[in-house]
Amino acid sequence: MKVINENTITDAALEQMSSTPNPRLRTIMASLVRHLHDFAREVDLTPEEWLEGIRFLTAVGQKCTPHRQEFILLSDTLGMSSLVNALHDKRATGPATKSSLLGPFYRQDAPEMRLGDSIIAHSKGTEVVFYGRVLDGNGRGIPNALIQIWEPDETGNYDLQKHDPSVMDLRGCFHADKEGRYHLRGLCPLGYMIPMDGPVGDMIRAQKRHGYRPAHVHFVISAPGCRELVTALYIAGDEHIDSDTVFGVSESLIVSVNRNDPASPLPNLPSIRYDFRLTAEQGAGISGRVGADPAQLGQKAG
Ligand SMILES: [Fe+2]
């Protein structure tokens, strides 16, 4: 009979799990258990504290609905989404735009639009034109690249957070032209506070964090043969640009709003110009999405 104590428990658990046939699952679970046990030993975790952790995770799960994903918010606010993005970027085989957070407000079924269209359906605010090109690793335009964009309204809320989340606003899908060029109209991005009415908000308050994200706009860019890019553009000068609650900002993703841009396809509007660069696909099914449409995350994987 083995003696189970605070030092032998880790090996005992690892030994039982060593029968896992899937090698990647075996590696991930063994490492997770090692680190989890080390964490408990390091802080000398009490039963009460562990139960509080279980209560917290239960509340995070219970807050999730087809329109809200509290677990993605938790991953984002713990820096885990940003870390997984950075590891994903490191595996790119060529130069590519940096990833940023997909966040909890992506939707799979945004409306198809034509170049130059506006994604503003129900909101008000300063209109801007987003334009630029989608380029491959050699700097060549990618014809017909798919550009998905979404952003919050003038009150800092996404359509999914509204009274009737089935109504779509401020999101759309566009196809670049033959040279990879795109332009579309939307709202000048604003910053916002992450949803604070759930357990993640309680955590943020307990840590005396401000809970704000700097002004940004989200993109997913894809094309056949290229690795899908999940990213966001951040507006220079925002007061929270250096203290994003979810750690999404990279210097190369910071843009400025240009109020006098003769090169813009719609020069009478303020403009935000950005060229996205995609790297070659590195195998089927490799996704850079740390998150998903909340309606899909609630479904069992097939
Ligand atoms: Fe966002």
Structure characterization notes:
It is a single chain. By secondary structure, the chain is of the alpha/beta class. It has 7 helices and 11 strands. The strands form 3 sheets. The chain has a 5-stranded mixed beta sheet, with no helix packed on it. Strand 7 and strand 8 form a beta hairpin. Helix 1 packs antiparallel against helix 2. The model has no long low-confidence stretch (mean pLDDT 93). Bound molecules: fe (ii) ion (FE2).
Order of helices and strands: HHHHHEEEEEHEEEEEEH
Count of DSSP-assigned helices? 7
Lateral strand order in the biggest sheet: 3-2-7-8-9
Given the helix and strand composition, which structural class is it? alpha/beta
User: Would you tell me which CATH topology of the largest domain applies?
Assistant: Protocatechuate 3,4-Dioxygenase, subunit A
Helix content: 25-40%
User: In the CATH hierarchy, what is the class of the largest domain?
Assistant: Mainly Beta
Number of domains as seen in the coordinates: 2
The number of E-state strands comes to: 11
Could you list the spans in which at least 5 consecutive residues all have pLDDT below 50? none
Overall residue-averaged pLDDT value? 93
Largest beta-sheet details: 5 strands, mixed
Beta-strand residue fraction: 15-25%
**Overall 3D shape:** globular
What is the CATH homology-level superfamily of the largest domain?
Aromatic compound dioxygenase
Query: Architecture of the largest domain, according to CATH?
Result: Sandwich
Gap between N and C termini = 41 Å
Ligands bound here? Answer: fe (ii) ion
Computed CA radius of gyration, to the nearest angstrom: 22 Å
